[in-house]
Amino acid sequence: MGFDQSTETCYYRCPRCCLFPGMKSICGLVVLFLVVLPSAVAYDPLDPTGNITIKWDIVSWTADGYVAAVTMSNFQMYRSIVSPGWTLGWQWAKKEVIWSMVGAQTTEQGDCSKFKGNVPHCCMRKPVVVDLLPGVPYNQQFSNCCKAGVMSAWGQDPTSSVSAFQVSVGLAGTSNKTVKLPTNFTLLGPGPGYTCGPAKVVPSTVYLSPDRRRKTQALMTWNVTCTYSQFLASRNPSCCVSFSSFYNETITPCPKCACGCQNKNNCVMSDSKQAHRKGINTPRKDNSPLLQCTHHMCPIRVHWHVKLNYKDYWRVKIAITNFNYRMNYTQWTLVAQHPNLNSVTQVFSFDYKPLVPYEAINDTGMFYGMKFYNDLLMEAGPQGNVQSEVLLGKNKDTFTFKQGWAFPRKVYFNGDECLLPPPDTYPFLPNSAYINPIAISTMEVLVLMFMLIL
Questions:
Q1: Domain COBRA C-terminal: where (predicted)?
Q2: Residue 10: is its pLDDT beyond 80?
Q3: How would you label 193-222 residue by residue, b for 16+ Cβ within 10 Å and e otherwise?
Q4: In whole angstroms, what is the distance from residue 423 CA to residue 409 CA?
Q5: Can you tell me the distance from the alpha carbon of 36 to that of 145, in angstroms, rounded to the nearest whole number?
Q6: Judging by beta carbons within 10 Å of its beta carbon (0-12, 13-18, 19+), is residue 376 exposed, middle or buried?
Q7: Averaged over 36-60, what is the pLDDT?
Q8: DSSP secondary structure of 280-307
Q9: Between 437 and 131, the higher pLDDT residue
Q10: Radius of gyration of the chain from Cα atoms?
């Protein structure tokens, strides 16, 4: 069964719909449904409660408005906000202005010519706010600010998954009844993909004093919830997966043009002089990638290798390769779905955390780099690779190497689903092979003993 590029796209969106040629029409209906109803795809079955919540707490009233503490919390288990960070925007309900900000700034001031005395920080009807860079003076800092807009995933590092700033708003209401909530919130993180709902008034936030003996509360609080859709972020996947195994010499590569071939004309050959030219790793303001020339044209490739088979365990090697010369991935995450992840025995050079969105099912786990060791995936080149091995316990009732069972059902990198190869190309078990796992491990022991004797 052949898979053309359109079918690969279908498999990426709906794998089960494309396993059989007779279900092509169903695949087409699924793709049409996802396009017509983009809000439906914001639901992630592996992280059903994942979102970014923006909380506004009015902490004091001023002569013509209020001072609010704005807190952004990333409750997504495995999707972080990477460099160059988040960008938050909204539309004022009336003619509000921003007198001052601490911990963040707007990208434009706008026309403030009508103000004769103090000039506001921003007079835009639709302000756009960005985080401050690390190292700003203390009088410009606010708690959980000044990280260049980078926010870790909640499942990876909850303490770094929050960003906050303070804003003083003028020409606004000075009571709970006269304040009008901002509308049309937008969030870039750093690219498109997030859709924000309307602001909703919620019970006021309660604060504890440092000695935890006194409670105070905000004068007014409202929340905005933003959810992520990969299909709104990009027409094509941003990563792909390749497979190999010890029982078959065939390596299953990423599908051709897995991430689209629109960058094919300006890619860089790995052995060319341009790949080593000074300044090639400098990021662009528009975040445009500079990819290494490959048949798949993906920034990220994940390779899953079934390495060894023992009597009670089996071993997998995972390698992540970066093909983008202009991108370092800070605090990257890798999520895999496989039924045997419920018996992870040891992970050797990555950190690992099981993801259990549904209590009865434990088949999903998150891998991420060890701090100060391999939590930074470098740009394309000799250092643009991280790898680890995973030891998994066997359930003899379900374990098999037949029909691609040993390979993952889904793979996500930094929260985006990767394109897997078509099922008919997976490394297969040779017909002449005896598939008794005990016999296979015994043979490996005999070969090892023979090599030691020699």
A1: 238-427
A2: no
A3: bbbbeebeeeebbeeeeeeeeeeeebbbbb
A4: 10
A5: 38
A6: middle
A7: 80
A8: TTPPPTT----BBP-SS--SEEEEEEEE
A9: 131
A10: 26
SS3 of residue 87 by DSSP: strand
- State both tokens at 237: 């996947």
HSE toward the beta carbon, residue 102, CA cutoff 13 A: 13
Rounded-to-integer distance, Cα 412 and Cα 394, Å? 24
pLDDT in tens, 415-452: 999 999 999 999 988 865 444 444 444 444 444 454 44
Instruction: State both tokens at 424.
Output: 């008919």
Q: Give me 401's structure tokens.
A: 């190497």
Angle between helices 5-13 and 24-36 (to 10 degrees): 60
Domain boundaries of the chain, sorted by first residue: 52-231, 237-270+288-453
Q: Point out the least confidently predicted range of 18-27, 286-295, 381-390.
A: 18-27
Strands (E), 23-161: 52-61, 66-74, 87-91, 97-102, 104-106, 128-131
- Mean pLDDT throughout 19-39? 43
Is domain 52-231 classified as CATH 2.40.30.10?
A: no
**pLDDT at residue number 22:** 46
Give the separation between CA 10 and CA 7, rounded to whole angstroms: 5
What are the residues whose beta carbons fall under 8 Å from the beta carbon of 405, sequence distance 6 or more?
Answer: 399
- 436 to each of 22, 401, 402, 442, 444, how far by Cα in Å? 35, 10, 11, 10, 13
Q: In terms of DSSP bridges, do strands 206-208 and 248-252 run parallel, antiparallel, or are they unpaired? A: unpaired
In the block, tokens 């029909």 appear at 403
pLDDT at 432: 52
Spatial separation of the C-alpha atoms in residues 196 and 72, rounded to whole Å = 12
Q: Which helix (H) or strand (E) holds 208?
A: strand 206-208
Residue matched to tokens 């009015």: 58
CB 155 within 8 A of CB 366: yes
Say which DSSP state 419 is in: B
With a pLDDT cut of 70, the percent of the chain lying above it is 85
First to last CA, the chain: 46
Please report the pLDDT score of residue 303 as a whole number: 97
Given this chain, do its domains 52-231 and 237-270+288-453 carry the same CATH topology? yes
Partners of 206 in the β-ladder: 217
